[in-house]
Design a protein that fits this description.
- The protein is of the alpha+beta class.
- It folds into three domains: 14-296, Hypothetical protein af1432; 310-482, GAF domain (Beta-Lactamase, 2-Layer Sandwich); 557-735, Heat Shock Protein 90, CATH 3.30.565.
- Helices cover 55% and strands 11% of the residues.
- It has 30 helices and 13 strands.
- A six-stranded antiparallel beta sheet has the order 3-2-1-6-5-4, sandwiched between helices. A five-stranded mixed beta sheet has the order 8-10-11-13-12, with helices on one face. A two-stranded antiparallel ribbon has the order 7-9.
- Helix 6 packs across helix 18 (306-331), helix 12 runs antiparallel to helix 13 and helix 18 packs antiparallel against helix 19 (334-350).
- The radius of gyration is 40 Å and the shape is elongated.
- It starts with a helix and ends with a helix.
């Protein structure tokens, strides 16, 4: 004997009830428009038994602990709010797509089930109004849920229910088979569910007795009679229906004809609005259900039109992908990471591989091309710059108007930059997607569509805008982080400068004494004495230190002075002559110098360059511990042709490479920040921050590479043919590197 409590416990664990795909699509579409009122959303959900059941189950659950229960779907939707209802719709859609086989047993058709449920609900509401029943909405919901027990048993006991549907039995035999094979009938299952939600007990009775006998029903209360008779009616009104209607509810044949015709028309209109391809069952519903369904062993019709199922699957996939993309954007490391995440998303979701960002500069005067480091268009993007104020490019227009546009062969003509860029991307259609943050333009993304797509569909455009909105916000936040970091850095530098000035006066006095002593020593020695060379170098260094002390504000200088023609090789030899013995030989370490012959003299600040070298050599010596070696090299190298410059100038490279333990990752991230050191007490942590600023003031660049247990290398590049002052002037007015120049570099 099957124990009913065990059956109910299994039902609780069975999962979700199936929903008509068309209803889910309509619901998801309604949520796409934020202005859709909740009453409209409720009216869509009110058309589906499974969705209505889920809403009522949630609102009447222990989680909300309400003093009264909801039996009206519209009231429940308004109470739960848009977010909760959307979660229900999305969760239901996801579940149904991934568990589709669960709802496609032989003999069961979800479209037919939906029609009968909605027809019964519509008839019940019309009958309730005609008979002046106090709660027509309660009658509607009872009619909608009258057969919900079938879905419960189908999802909980699919094998048993397939056997029941394939039996070729009438309704009475089906109820008996349900009880024998499962332990309860679908009527009992539906009534149990409604009682679990603590709804009106009369509603549970109406569901329990909707297949009862007329002799039983004629003694029942009105709601039971209404649902029983609504289930009994079909699209075709029969004479015995008129007799039953008169007996149970006092309805005339004219009343019944009006009710049936009106309900049929209403359900057909609902099906049309929801784009459900269905028509009323042609056979009498009171005949065996098996007569209207495929025979056992035959394939049942699909739950819904294949196109609708595929459309629903696409929407679910888009929702799932969007959630994953948004999560990856939040976790992305810096603007480079955000751009890389977006590029990957475009490849996965839209099969788009041609992606270029145009992002504004700090002054918001220029749009500059940018991609991730792995993008095949990276070299092209680095040379693309457009003026926000002067350019008539469609890219700038999309940026200013914050509107999505298409760049094609036709509309790219007239503006040379657009035409050249369109040619370089090599796609028939390029989508211009604007980025915005805090209600302000934040950039434009160029997407080259695949050859098979001339434009994006409405749903794809909507999804793309949602992703772009998050990308714009992430890039805006990264920009704010960098700006804040610069402000903090400036404050730290100002604090260091104030502190340094306090020591300047005290330092000048002993430095003056040392200078005088060196001068006296030089006078006491003959001019041919070999120590005179050391005294000369020491004198120059003391003078340099005195000059630095007089200009203690190292971190806020606008330019390095004085500028003079400098022999880099000779300058490095002088520095090595000073530091070799105290920093290397005396400590058992080696240092070698490999100068490039014929190195040209450059116009730069020799004082600044000396300070750079002293700091790097001192760091290398201290970082190696005991033993090890340092190698200094000079060379002439060609400038990177993809940097934003109209000329390719040679540069002087100075490399300082040691065989120390290398630098850990967390140190590399803060390498040039002041007051950050790994050397312990006695070290200020200012050396590399000073080096970094001096190199930038000289118009150069510095790169550090480090391998654990192998060593660290600093590579400095300085302009060989342009003075520092000229370099500074150029940095204030960036060159407009044309699209044509960039394309020539690539092709």
């Amino acid at each position: 004997m099957i124990i009913k409590n065990n059956v109910y416990n299994k039902i609780k664990k069975s999962g979700k009830l199936p929903t008509l795909p068309e209803v889910l699509l309509q619901l998801l579409k309604a949520f796409d428009n934020e202005a859709t009122p909740l009453t409209e959303i409720a009216s869509i959900m009110n058309n589906d038994p499974a969705l209505s059941a889920r809403v009522l189950q949630l609102v009447n659950s222990a989680y909300y602990s309400l003093n009264s229960t909801f039996s009206n779907v519209e009231q429940a939707v308004v109470y739960l709010g848009a977010n909760s209802i959307k979660n229900i719709a999305v969760t239901t859609a996801v579940h149904q797509i991934f568990a589709r086989k669960q709802f496609t047993i032989r003999g069961f058709n979800l479209n037919t089930f939906w029609w009968r449920s909605l027809m019964c609900a519509t008839l019940a509401k019309r009958i309730a109004k005609k008979t002046r029943y106090d709660c027509p909405d309660e009658a509607y919901l009872s009619g909608l849920l009258h057969d919900i027990g079938r879905l419960i048993l189908l999802t909980s006991f699919p094998k048993e229910y397939e056997t029941i549907y394939c039996g070729g039995e009438d309704i009475s035999a089906q109820l008996l088979s349900e009880t024998q094979l499962i332990g309860i009938s679908h009527c009992e299952a539906g009534a149990w569910l409604i009682n679990t939600w603590k709804l009106n007990s009369m509603m549970a009775d109406a569901v329990l007795w909707h297949h009862g006998s007329i002799e039983q029903i004629k003694e029942a209360f009105p709601l039971v009679k209404i649902v029983f008779f609504s289930n009994m009616l079909s699209g075709q009104l029969h004479e015995q229906d008129c007799e039953t209607g008169e007996l149970l509810l006092g309805l005339s044949s004219g009343d019944l004809r009006e009710i049936v015709d009106g309900a049929t028309e209403e359900v057909l209109q609902i099906a049309k609005d929801l784009n459900i391809k269905i028509r009323p069952p042609e056979k009498d519903e009171r005949k065996s259900a098996a007569e209207e369904l495929p025979a056992c062993g035959q394939s049942a019709e699909p739950d819904a039109d294949t196109e609708v199922q595929n459309h629903l699957a696409e929407r679910v996939q888009s929702i799932s992908l969007l959630a994953g993309i948004l999560e990856n954007l939040v976790l992305a490391d810096g603007s480079e990471g955000v751009i890389a995440v977006f590029e990957q998303a475009m490849r996965i979701v839209f099969n788009i591989s041609k992606v270029i960002f145009f992002l504004p500069d700090e002054e918001l005067l220029l749009l500059k091309g940018r991609t991730s480091s792995s993008n095949t268009l990276q070299h092209l993007s680095q040379g693309l710059i457009l003026s926000v104020q002067r350019s008539t490019s469609l890219i700038v227009t999309a940026y200013r108007q914050s509107s999505m546009m298409y760049l094609t062969a036709e509309n790219s003509r007239g503006v040379l930059a657009d035409e050249q860029l369109f040619t370089a991307i090599r796609c028939a259609t390029v989508v211009l997607v604007p980025l915005a943050a805090d209600k302000h333009p934040a950039g434009v993304i160029l997407l080259g569509l695949p050859e098979t797509a001339a434009s994006l569909s409405e749903s794809d455009s909507r999804l793309l805008r949602m992703i772009a909105q998050q990308v714009g916000l992430c890039l805006f936040l990264e920009r704010m982080k960098l700006q804040k970091a610069k402000e903090i850095e400036a404050e730290r530098m100002a604090a260091i400068s104030v502190t340094a000035r306090k020591f300047a006066h005290e330092i000048n006095n002993p430095m003056g004494i040392i200078t005088n002593c060196i001068a006296v020593m030089g006078l006491k020695l003959s001019s041919q004495n070999e120590i005179q060379e050391e005294l000369r170098i020491l004198g120059e260094e003391i003078n340099r230190i005195s000059s630095m002390v007089r200009h203690m504000d190292l971190f806020s200088q606008d330019a390095v002075t004085p500028l003079n023609p400098t022999d880099v090789n000779m300058l490095i030899r002088d520095i090595l002559h000073i530091v070799k013995e105290p920093l290397f030989t005396a400590l058992g370490k080696e240092i070698t110098f490999r100068p490039e012959t014929g190195l040209p003299r450059i116009t730069t600040s020799s004082d600044a360059l000396k300070q750079i070298m002293l700091n790097l050599l001192k760091n290398a010596s201290e970082g190696m511990g005991s033993g090890g070696s340092v190698e200094v090299r000079t060379a002439v190298v060609s400038k990177n042709p993809y940097e934003n410059s109209t000329r390719q100038e040679d540069e002087i490279e100075i490399a300082v490479e040691d065989t120390g333990p290398g630098l850990p990752e967390h140190v590399m991230k803060n390498l040039y920040k002041p007051l950050v050191t790994t050397k312990g007490n006695g070290h200020s942590g200012l050396g590399l921050s000073i080096v970094y600023k001096l190199v930038k003031d000289l118009g150069g660049s510095i790169i550090c590479s480090s391998i654990p247990a192998e060593g660290t290398k600093f590579s400095i590049r300085l302009p060989a043919g342009k003075k520092v002052r000229e370099k500074k002037k150029l940095s204030g007015a960036p060159n407009m590197y044309s699209v044509d120049s960039a394309i020539k570099d690539v092709y």
